[in-house]
Amino acid sequence: MAAPTEITLRDLNGYWVMSKSLSDPLDPVLALQGINWLIRKVVSLATITMRVIETEDATGTIHIRVEQTATGGIKGETEERKLDWSFVPHVSGVFGEMNNRTRWTSIGTEAESGGGGPLQPWLTEGWLDEKPLEDQKTHVQNWVVNEKSGWTAEQIWGFAMVDGKRYHVRKFLVKKGDEEARARMVYDWKGVEK
User: pLDDT exceeding 90 applies to what percent of the chain?
Assistant: First the structure.
């Protein structure tokens, strides 16, 4: 189901399911991240559900907790995002040890990649112009570094029109050496209660 207009990046609380029919194939991204073929195949067949819990602490910093579950025997994982651009370590059963940092960002020409320099244009295209914050920050940016496997991932979260309907979308750009792979993930809104 498309996302209602009252659901914004300032309130993602609820359940989201990745739409296989509207999302890009994840296999190229996962392969570049060093994920073996069998796990990639299981992921391609699995239904991935996210429960998002968004809170604000006493300093005004937003925290986004993403509890992911998947069918097909894939162990669920929880990710903690703190939107202050500080590095937060995370250990994943699939991706290994990583450091990630997250912030509010604008995706105009001044937008900067987590690795320095401008954001790759594909990450900035096709979004709805929604402003959940007064300071004109329009999207969530996440930068992930996996030093052991040698890859980085840049993610931009927002809302976009897909097949004429408004959806929560996350764009991923993974780089390893001179190679890169990208995917757009589109999420169906399932409501606040499961």
Answer: 70
Give the 3-state secondary structure of the chain. Answer: CCCCCCCCCCCCCEEEEECCCCCCCCHHHHHHCCCCHHHHHHHHHCCEEEEEEEEECCCCCEEEEEEEEECCCCCCEEEEEECCCCCEEEEECCCEEEEEEEEEECCCCCCECCCCCECCHHHHCCCCCCCCCCCCCCEEEEEEEECCCCEEEEEEEEEEEECCEEEEEEEEEEEECCEEEEEEEEEEEEECCC
Q: Which residues are registered as beta bridge partners of 142?
A: 102, 155
What tens digit of pLDDT does each residue of 143-152 get?
999 999 999 9
Q: What is the pLDDT of residues 74-113, one digit of tens each?
A: 778 899 999 999 999 988 877 878 899 999 998 877 789 9
Task: Work out the widest C-alpha separation in the chain, in whole angstroms.
Answer: 45
- Partners of 102 in beta bridges: 142
Q: Which residues of 72-102 are buried (b: 16+ CB within 10 A; e: fewer)?
A: eebeebebebbbbeeeeebeeeebeebebbb
Neighbour count for residue 139 (Cβ, 10 Å): 24
